[in-house]
Design brief:
Layout: E1 5-9, E2 12-16, H1 18-24, E3 30-34, E4 37-40, H2 43-52, H3 73-92, E5 103-105, H4 107-118, H5 131-134, H6 137-148, H7 163-169, H8 174-208, H9 216-226, E6 233-235, E7 253-256, H10 258-261, H11 304-320, E8 324-327, E9 331-334, E10 344-347
Parallel strand pairs: 2-9, 4-7
Antiparallel strand pairs: 1-2, 3-4, 5-10, 6-7, 8-10
Helix pairs in contact: 3-7, 3-8, 3-11, 4-8, 7-8, 8-9, 8-11, 9-11
Length: about 350
């Protein structure tokens, strides 16, 4: 079992994996994380790094190459629009029964969101968004091959399929179809996993600090500050970064660390307090100095405009149906994963 280390935040605590705890213990904003990686949590230097060159496709989780070719810009744009249509349609429709939110978080809400947003798609399309499938390379390849030749464009009950599924069925050639399949899987997984992590982190912080329900939007922005699911952004090294800082060489990769920046007293008063009221009068939270919950200009999260509204809708369903955290009683584990998410068990009222 992975050893954890505690991190106390005013009124509550979480138990981070040791590597994350080591980062939190750093006193400097620029440091060598390992022989090939420099960690950065300085806002000004971060802005310089982001401006030094465009983000590479290989540095993007969703738009990295698929089927042996780069994802064209127009294809990426269509994916963003289609996903937005599916999320907005989901928010407007009745959610699945709330009892499905009971169990282990963030896994229960991840499955719940996939059912909510993509449940109208027929088999095997809906399998593309199943967590058990995406965790297996063999099953993923089998489903991909099946979807490639799947003729049906309507759900079994006659409902329309999602806009994301429409991109697969409307592909002009085999390469475009294979890439649309890859984009369906990546986009659905990234969105649902990220929203589930954010909602779970918010529930834990609200419960652990006895924060009343109040303004859920403000609570989510404060959660993005204190426990941001996208806690690290990675950049491959190169000449573009050499000279920006004495510790940065052309061979050094860079780990940009929102988790550290969001907790630094240079940028935030009482940085370890969970205070949703910080955001009550903030018109555009993303313009707040020292705050980068979705990345930076030119490389921001492609679904950033969907994450907070969908997380708020998910929290509303959970709280309206009496969701309560059953465990742990005090310390919640946060393992080392690509998304920072608190682990706990939850139950739902009748």
């Amino acid at each position: 079992m992975q050893e954890m280390a505690p991190d106390t935040v005013r009124g509550h605590s979480v138990v981070f994996a040791p590597r994350i705890q080591d980062l939190l213990a750093r006193d400097t904003k620029v440091f060598r994380a390992d022989a090939r990686t420099v960690g950065v949590s300085d806002a000004a230097l971060t802005a310089e790094i982001v401006a030094a060159r465009p983000v590479l496709q290989t540095e993007r989780s969703v738009y990295k190459p698929a089927a042996g070719a780069d994802i064209p810009h127009d294809s990426a744009t269509r994916t963003i629009r289609a996903l937005g249509q599916d999320v907005m349609a989901g928010i407007r429709t009745p959610p699945p029964p709330a009892r499905a939110l009971a169990g282990a978080w963030p896994y229960a809400p991840t499955s719940y969101l996939r059912r909510w947003l993509f449940g109208s798609d027929p088999l095997p399309l809906s399998l593309l968004a199943k967590r058990g499938i995406t965790r297996s390379d063999t099953l993923s390849r089998l489903v991909d091959r099946t979807v490639t030749v799947w003729p049906n464009t309507e759900a079994a009950d006659g409902r329309s399929t999602t806009a994301m599924a429409g991109l697969i069925h409307g592909a002009a050639d085999p390469l475009e179809r294979k890439q649309a399949i890859a984009m369906y899987r990546r986009a659905s997984a990234t969105l649902c996993d990220g929203v589930a992590a954010l909602a779970g982190n918010a529930l834990w912080l609200m419960r652990a600090t006895d924060t009343p329900r109040g303004d859920l939007t403000a609570a989510l922005w404060e959660t993005l500050r204190l426990l941001p699911p996208a806690w690290m952004l990675y950049r491959n090294g190169g000449e573009a970064y050499a000279g920006l800082h004495p510790d940065l060489g052309p061979e050094d990769n860079i780990a940009l660390l929102p988790l550290l920046m969001h907790r630094h007293p240079d940028y935030w008063p009482d940085p370890l307090d969970f205070r949703p009221q910080r955001w009550a009068e903030v018109a555009d939270p993303e313009k707040t100095p020292g705050f980068m919950p979705f990345g930076f200009d030119g490389a921001r999260c492609w679904a950033k405009h969907l994450v907070v509204p969908l997380a708020e809708r998910l929290l509303t369903v959970a709280l309206d149906h009496g969701l309560t955290i059953r465990g742990p009683r005090q310390d919640a584990p946060v393992p080392l994963r690509s998304l920072l998410s608190v682990r706990f068990e939850a139950s739902v009222g009748a």
